[in-house]
Every structure is written in C-alpha cells, then in structure tokens.
Design goal:
Number of helices: 10
Strand content: under 5%
Largest sheet: 2 strands, antiparallel
Number of strands: 2
Order of helices and strands: HHHHHHEEHHHH
Strand order of the largest sheet: 1-2
Shape: globular
C-alpha cells in the first residue's frame, strides 16, 4: 500500500511540474478542466446520483467549463462567491451536521466548490507558474505538519463526528509548518524570484484548507464512502487530493485579484 502511494505521488508530482512549467496556458486550462471534470464525476457519486445522473452532471460541468474557457468570461466574482461559501455556508454546514440530499442543491454546491478552484489554477498559471507552485505547496505543507503533529501530540479531537482522526494539535502543527515554510519563502525570496505573498495569506490558506478537507469528509460520511473515487491508486479519488485546495486556492486568488496588502 505504501509503495503504491509513493509511486502514485511521484507520478502526480511529475505530471504537475511538467504541466506547470512546460504547458502553455491554453493546454494547462484544458488539462485542469479534465481534472475538475473527474472531480465532478466523483461529486456525482458523493451526491448519490444514479449512473445516468452522474454522466449528466459530468456533461453539464464540462459544457460550462468549455463555455467559460472559450468565451473568456470574467471570473473575479466567483472567488468572492467561493470564499463566502466556505465561511458562511460550509462552516455552519459542518457545525450543525446538515444532511443535504437535494439533487439540485448538491449539484450547485459542487460547482461552487470546483469551478473557482479551476479558475484559480488558470489565473495563477497565467500570472506565474512558480507562484502557483508555491501556493499549492502551502496546502501540502499544512497536511504534512498536521499529520506528524497529530500523530505525536494529538489528544483533542477537532471534529470527531466528521473526521475522527483530526485533532486540534494537528491543526496547530499544520499552521506552524506553514509559518516556517513562509519564513523560508521570505528569506529565499530573491533566490526563487517569486515575491512573498505574506504570512497572513499563507496561514489563512492553511486554515481554510482544513475546512475543505472536513467538508469533503462529511460528504463522504453522509454518502457512506471511504474515498471519493479510485482513480489514484493508494490515494483514492481526485477530490481526496484536492479537497484542501478547493477552499484555499480561491481565497488566494481573491487576495491577489483584489490587491489586499501582504503582511
């Protein structure tokens, strides 16, 4: 199992770096739309759609994505919509344990989760691939810090009814890891030639990634599923790998698009 996870992780890293630094923005956009489309297929499963319904949801998602891409629709407002969703809807959803099964509501929720993430992936790639890589790493660092600090010190459960393995000690360990990562970025800013975005953004991304992770865990628990899919051997589905990004990356995009100060 560990060997499979490691092989898959290296393959994903190879594809990510290759796509980031060698694909033109046009092809990067289509590639990431493919990833989001797989996520939509998995979302249909979490929503409990029958197989035909999942195909319909996938088709509509790809149709919307293609329309956005071809028409070059302005998407800035979607970042604010995503941030509002994660703070004002997803958090109460988790806190009160809402069991939502209405097909239309779940479909709309999936689009609010997936599309701003895709827009942000394209936006940052067009800005600078190295910046996107640095921001993607924030969520990975937070995950790694949370894993090791949770295993070493975890005693106080974060959300036992949603994800029993997560602890407050893990959250703080993830934030600490991101703080050190931010310090390294700031000190090495000249060497990597990527402007440091500020500790506030990095720590906010790390905190928001926890919400995305818990939200997907709640949906899987509600659907009686362990993983969102099986396309990634040893890792589960696409949503299992990007759950933290779906909440963190639109926040970063809003931060940059609306010119918030870095500190």
């Amino acid at each position: 199992m560990l060997r499979t996870r490691v092989i898959t992780a290296f393959a994903l890293l190879f594809l990510l770096l290759g796509g980031l630094f060698y694909l033109p923005s046009l092809y990067w956009g289509w590639l990431t739309l493919g990833v989001i489309s797989i996520g939509a297929w998995e979302w249909g499963s979490l929503a409990g759609y029958p197989r035909v319904g999942r195909w319909v949801y996938l088709g509509v998602t790809m149709g919307f994505g293609g329309a956005f891409f071809v028409l070059q629709t302005r998407v800035e407002q979607f970042y604010l919509l995503a941030v509002a969703f994660w703070l004002l809807v997803a958090l109460p959803w988790l806190a009160w344990g809402w069991k939502v099964r209405h097909p239309a509501l779940l479909a709309a929720t999936g689009w609010v989760v997936l599309f701003p993430t895709w827009f942000a992936l394209m936006e940052f790639h067009a800005m600078r691939p190295a910046l996107l890589l640095g921001l993607l790493a924030v969520v990975s660092v937070a995950d790694i810090g949370a894993y090791f600090s949770g295993r070493a010190f975890g005693k106080h459960k974060l959300a036992p009814s949603v994800s029993p393995g997560k602890t407050w000690e893990g959250v703080f360990g993830g934030l600490a890891g991101v703080a050190f990562y931010g310090l390294a970025w700031k000190l090495g800013e000249g060497a990597v030639d990527v402007p440091f975005p500020g500790f506030a953004l990095l720590l906010a991304m790390a905190a928001m990634s926890v919400v995305g992770d818990l939200f997907e865990s709640w949906l899987k628990r509600q659907a009686g599923m362990k993983d969102s899919g099986s396309i990634l051997p040893g890792h589960g589905g696409v949503l299992d790998r990007i759950d933290g990004l779906t909440s963190a990356l639109p926040l970063a995009a809003a931060y940059y698009i609306y010119g918030l100060p870095a500190f």
